[in-house]
Write a structure and sequence with these properties.
about 600 residues; 31-stranded mixed sheet; two-stranded antiparallel ribbon; AsmA; AsmA-related; membrane; transmembrane; transmembrane helix
Length: about 600
């Protein structure tokens, strides 16, 4: 046979096959596929009952596919079957060669406007259980048996290799049903699950709106069937949204007590926004952020460890170890971090955000949920506003409505500082305890940073303050506070007191404002202060300033509420000890005090 005749026969055979396909496929589709195959195949894969409310439309060109309208997947409740998935339209692309053999093999499925119904209980939302004879369920069970028998993950070639293809969904919704009510969980859901065969790699790309935010999820696994069977497999996950960006690449195991081991990175422009988004209610911490972390993450779903963590909060960066645990549903964070630089104001805001109670729905009402914290910090250089500190050692704790933040040591203003803050929110009112102390601090430097121009001694000294109060606001807490204040200063001066002007105005016997003697400073060799605070009123027990020639002493009351003054004072001239001291009264407010000298022989009002 000549080459030309062979070519002609080959061409003829191809034409005949094409004609058979064009003529035979509609016939096959109209008899076997439409009548029996499609619904049975969807049911055999999913394990759910499939109902087609309309006759499928068969299209041969340009692809061989069936178009199904009003498709419903139901559970197997014989009395009252409930829909699990409903779709306005499903487009099913089929294998033409398999159809010629009388088989139904899906190569691609496209769900238009699907609605997925989840059932809720105390554990959360989940799909109703399908029948165990479903092809996917049987493949998972087979993979589980292989893992149990071998003690390790089987090779890909040993796993079930049923072809699945691609499943696309467009403009879908996910709703949750619980206690007779339903709520929308995810809207505008679109994406594709690409899983050519059960023993091959699968990838999922999906976009949707969850709790009002657009979310883009991309996840892939080299052996997804092993993941479903409770074995370990490689996972690559990416989540993108306005509140949070997250990625994970490593190994995961989803066998109930989930296990993860891989590289994690996450970032958010606002910690408060993430807390509100994840919890679904305001957390009151919008001022905190941005926050980012990159670390090696290992652990299970109830306890995760972040090793070699690089953490950034606002403009503060640190490295160290973090651990997140979930005890009885409450998350807790612990660890040790070393900072080169730290913004203490942002850290305190972050700590306060973790202590704010937020509501967590559990099906029977709402419960208070807090983030428990147990952290240690070391900082080379720290700032709080314009105040700079060095070599800071700090700790933060929060649990069961109690929160503490302590700076056990810090170098600042030429000396050392310590600070403690304790908040108790377990009662009807917040209880706040504050302690602040310093040793050998240059108060001239402190006054400059605090922008205090008068009355604070400019000298080296040591001081301590301890207050405890209750209330709903800071003013209420100060008005109820108890505690004590002590301070001792060495040689220096007290700005805002010009002694000659004070004596001259006092001799006239009239009231005068403190501002009238503010042009100058009182030189001192030593200065001491001791006061007891009871119910928001400071009782001055000792307030003494010794200059080279005079001794200035004060006693009386300073209420925090109203910011008033009620002080008596004496000015003694050390050069003339036989002379009576000058006595005076200090009243008015903290912002505008006034002074009045009076006759020492006159009776003092009680």
């Amino acid at each position: 046979m000549s080459l030309a005749r062979k070519a002609a026969w080959s061409t003829g055979i191809v034409v005949v096959i094409a004609l058979l396909l064009m003529v035979g496929l509609p016939l096959i589709a109209s008899t076997q596929i439409v009548r029996d195959g499609i619904a049975n195949q969807m049911s055999s894969w999913s394990g759910y009952r499939v109902r087609l409310d309309d006759t499928p439309e068969i299209e041969v060109w340009p692809t061989f596919r069936a178009v199904l309208n009003d498709v419903t997947l139901l559970d197997w409740n014989t009395r009252d079957p409930q829909p699990v998935v409903e779709a306005v339209r499903v487009e099913v692309e089929l294998s033409a060669l398999a159809a010629l053999r009388g088989d139904v093999v899906f190569t691609r499925m496209r769900f238009i406007r699907p609605l997925v119904r989840l059932h809720g209980d105390r554990r959360g939302y989940h799909l109703p259980s399908p029948r165990d004879w479903g092809r996917l369920a049987r493949s998972v069970e087979q993979a589980e048996q292989m893992v149990a028998q071998n003690g390790e993950a089987p090779a890909a070639r040993a796993l079930p290799d049923d072809p699945l293809g691609a499943i696309e969904f467009v403009d879908g919704r996910v709703i949750g049903a619980q206690s007779g009510t339903t709520q929308e969980l995810i809207t505008s859901l679109s994406g594709t699950l690409d899983w050519p065969a059960l023993n091959r790699q699968a990838s999922l790309n999906a976009k949707g709106i969850w709790r009002g935010e657009a979310v883009d999820v991309q996840v892939s696994s080299a052996q997804p069937l092993l993941l479903l069977a409770g074995s370990s497999a490689a996972v690559d996950l990416s989540v993108r949204s306005s509140p949070l960006n997250l990625s994970f690449k490593g190994t995961a195991n989803l066998s109930g007590v989930d296990f993860f081991d891989g590289d994690l990175s996450a970032s958010t422009p606002s910690l408060g926004r993430v807390m509100e988004w994840m919890q679904g209610v305001p957390a009151g911490a919008n001022r905190v952020g941005p926050v980012s972390i990159a670390a090696r993450m290992t652990g299970q779903n109830d306890r995760l460890k972040f090793e070699n963590a690089a953490l950034t909060v606002d403009e503060s960066s640190a490295k160290g170890l973090l651990e997140i645990a979930f005890e009885q549903g409450e998350p807790s964070i612990s660890g040790t971090l070393a900072f080169d630089q730290l913004n203490l104001r942002s850290t305190l805001n972050t700590f306060a955000a973790s202590h704010v109670a937020v509501a967590a729905r559990d099906g029977e009402g709402s419960v208070d949920q807090r983030i428990n914290v147990d952290m240690r910090f070391s900082v080379v250089n720290a700032t709080y506003g314009s105040i700079a500190l060095a070599n800071v050692a700090a700790a933060a704790k929060s649990r069961d409505g109690l929160a503490t933040f302590d700076i056990s040591d810090a170098t600042a203003f030429g000396g050392s500082l310590q600070m403690g803050l304790r908040v108790d929110r377990t009662g009807s009112f917040d209880t706040l305890e504050v302690s602040f102390s310093g040793e050998q601090v240059d108060t001239a430097m402190l006054a400059q940073k605090l922008q205090v121009s008068a009355l604070l001694p400019r000298a080296r000294g040591s001081f301590s303050l301890s207050l405890k109060g209750t209330g709903r606001t800071l003013d209420e807490i100060l008005s109820s506070a108890d505690g004590n204040i002590t301070a001792e200063f060495g040689k220096g001066e007290i700005p805002g007191i010009h002694l000659p002007s004070f004596m001259q105005l006092s001799e006239r016997g009239d009231f005068f404002a403190l501002s009238e003697i503010s042009e100058g400073a009182l030189p001192v060799d030593t200065a001491r202060l001791k006061a007891t605070v009871r119910r928001g009123v400071a009782d001055i027990e000792t307030a003494e300033a010794r200059s080279p020639s005079h001794v200035l002493e004060l006693d009386g009351l300073v209420p925090f509420a109203g910011r008033g003054l009620a002080l008596y004072g004496t000015l003694t001239d050390e050069r003339t000890p036989e002379a009576a001291p000058l006595m005076f009264f200090v009243g008015g407010s903290w912002a505008s005090p006034f002074i009045a000298a009076f006759n020492p022989d006159a009776p003092r009002e009680q």
